[in-house]
Structure formats: structure tokens, C-alpha cells
Specification:
alpha+beta, 58% helix
């Protein structure tokens, strides 16, 4: 609209978009303010995230980690980006210049902003996918122009949608990506077990163990940040702050949640605590914690009460079993049902 100098339509669109953003925010803010929770809402939704993003967990590069997760797709997208830069003179003459400007500027911005706290979580790199998709399409378009020059085609062929003509190539690329992906063998095994094995199970082995070795209504803690296991084992955790000890200690709301975690642990100790063995989460085994420190993956800004939490668990729990390399600790003076 700006390029067409249709300023009235542009500002009308801006006003509608602004209203679409502010009205839901105003209603939500009014609800929390009515209950006296407006400041808590700000801390949980905005201020905590800013503190979280400003606290590095590792020294890894978002670019390196993103390429490891997205693998071949990221490399094809990189080829598309380089081709975009190489053909910039031709692109400046095209009518779809704004789209390419978005790709040129937005791609490095997405890479830079994808993981500011360096947590290395795979879902942080999902915002790369729209850019990778468009850049990959551009890369294949350039290759197609070189390998298959545009010639006079029969009317029947020219009337076919471009998507239909490119479908065989797209299927071939998808097959190659699946075959070359290191996860391909895992997918094949999963499908094979799903359709042919008599031992199909929708729950994890640790969730099945917990379900079989506790009574309904008893609390179980999966250390740490694994609420899905609570769901699959049909056992609740005694606390709401399940993301302990992942909280950023410099945040006020995180400090309150950390205190609540310890209080809930002491007042309603779970029957079982399962150490899920996440690399960047302090292990419940003192020897493994020392290994984490030596590897440089131990949290540099742990909760103030972490030592107290670990001491409480060490004093009140004993190792009952190890399921799939995951230690299971049982509350002392309790026994299996």
C-alpha cells in the first residue's frame, strides 16, 4: 500500500490491526487487574521472559544448534539465501521485491533472535521454517531455470498449475530428505512397531512403572520439567512450579515460585521422584552433579534454595530402581503397593 501511495488504505489497515492487538490485551489486563494480579501478569508474561532471555545457559551458537536440528533443510535454505544475494541485481527489477527484502533481512534476524538465552531447545528454531521454506523454493526455482530452460510448451501443459508440475520434484526432494536424515531409521522403527509389534504402548516405560508402583492419588515428581510423564502415569505432582530449577533466579516471580516449590516438596513429599536425566538439570546423584560441573553444563545461576532442595531429597529418599537409565527414588518409610 505504501508503494502504491494508497495512504488512506494503509492507515486504515494499521488502525484495524492495532485494535485487533489492543482490545484482547485490554480485556485480559482488566481481568487480572480486577483480581489484583496485574503486576503478577506483567511479571509472568513479559518481565520474566526478558530476564530469561538475558540469562545465558550455554556458550553455544544459535546458528550451529539450528543447523544441527534442521539439518538438510537448513543447508538448502542457506543455498537459497546465497543465491538470493548473488541475484540481487535481477531481483531489484522484479515486482516481488518486497518479499525478497523480507527474506534478506528477516532470515538473519530470525537466526539472531531464535535463542537469545542459548537454551538450545529444538522448538526455538521453528521460526526459521517459513524462511527456509521460501528460500528452498527459490533455490529449486533457480536450479530448475538452469536445468530446464523455459521453452514453448503445449497449451495443455502450460495450463497446468505450477504446483502440479513441481509435485514429482517435491516428492523426490522429500524422499531424499527423509532418507538422508539421521532420524529416518528412528521413524522406520517407530512405524514398524506401531503396525507390526504386539507390544505397542502409547506411554513411556517410566510412566508405566510409576503407574504400577504407586497408588491413585499419590504424588510423583519427575525431575525436572516433565509434566507429560505425570499425565501418562495418571499421577499428579505436589507442586505447580514444575519448571524448577529452570527458573531465572534474578526474576522476582521466579524466586517466589522457587520458594513455593520447596514448601510444597516439604509439606507434601511425593512418593516417588524420578530423575529424568536432562543434561542441563542438576542431577539428584551427587557424583553426576560433579560430572555436570566438569562438563560446564551445570547451571551458573541456580535457585537460591537448590542446595536445600537437594539436601531434602537426599535425606528423605532412597534409590529404588533404575528404569531406562532413569533413577527412581522412593520416600523413606514407604513401600510399594
Amino acid at each position: 500500500l505504501l508503494l502504491k501511495k494508497d495512504f488512506q488504505a494503509f492507515f486504515t489497515a494499521v488502525i484495524w490491526v492495532t485494535l485487533g492487538i489492543t482490545i484482547p490485551l485490554a480485556v485480559t489486563s482488566a481481568y487480572f487487574a480486577y483480581h489484583g494480579l496485574f503486576q503478577a501478569m506483567l511479571e509472568a508474561s513479559i518481565l520474566y521472559n526478558l530476564s530469561y532471555s538475558a540469562t545465558d545457559l550455554s556458550t553455544s551458537s544459535a546458528l550451529k544448534v539450528g543447523f544441527e536440528f534442521l539439518n538438510l533443510a537448513a543447508w538448502i535454505g542457506l543455498v537459497g539465501y546465497l543465491l538470493l544475494v548473488a541475484k540481487i541485481k535481477d531481483i531489484l527489477k522484479r515486482s516481488y521485491l518486497p518479499l525478497f527484502i523480507v527474506l534478506l533481512v528477516g532470515t538473519p534476524a530470525a537466526v539472531y533472535l531464535s535463542d537469545p538465552a542459548k537454551r538450545n531447545y529444538g522448538h526455538y528454531f521453528m521460526n526459521w521454517l517459513p524462511f527456509i521454506g521460501l528460500l528452498s523454493a527459490f533455490a529449486f526455482h533457480v536450479v530448475q531455470e538452469k536445468l530446464l530452460p523455459n521453452k514453448e510448451q503445449p497449451p495443455a501443459v502450460s495450463r497446468q498449475p505450477a504446483a502440479a508440475r513441481l509435485l514429482p520434484s517435491a516428492l523426490l526432494v522429500t524422499l531424499l530428505f527423509f532418507t538422508l536424515s539421521p532420524r529416518a531409521s528412528t521413524y522406520v522403527k517407530a512405524f514398524d512397531r506401531l503396525f507390526t509389534s504386539s507390544e505397542r504402548e502409547l506411554r513411556s516405560p517410566i510412566a508405566i512403572y510409576v503407574d504400577n508402583h504407586t497408588e491413585p492419588g499419590e504424588y510423583v515428581l519427575f525431575w525436572a520439567t516433565h509434566p507429560g510423564e505425570n499425565f501418562m502415569s495418571h499421577r499428579e505432582a505436589p507442586m505447580t512450579a514444575l519448571f524448577y530449577p529452570n527458573m531465572v533466579n534474578s526474576s522476582k516471580i521466579a524466586q517466589r515460585l522457587n520458594d513455593d516449590f520447596l514448601s510444597d516438596l516439604q509439606n507434601n513429599p511425593p512418593i516417588l521422584i524420578v530423575d529424568m536425566g536432562r543434561l542441563t538439570i542438576p542431577s539428584l546423584d551427587p557424583a553426576k552433579r560433579e560430572e555436570q560441573k566438569a562438563m560446564g553444563v551445570y547451571p551458573t545461576d541456580p535457585p537460591d534454595n537448590l542446595d536445600e532442595v537437594l539436601a531434602f531429597i537426599a535425606e528423605n529418599y532412597h534409590l529404588e530402581n533404575i528404569i531406562k537409565d532413569k533413577p527412581v527414588y522412593r520416600l523413606r518409610a514407604t513401600s510399594e503397593p
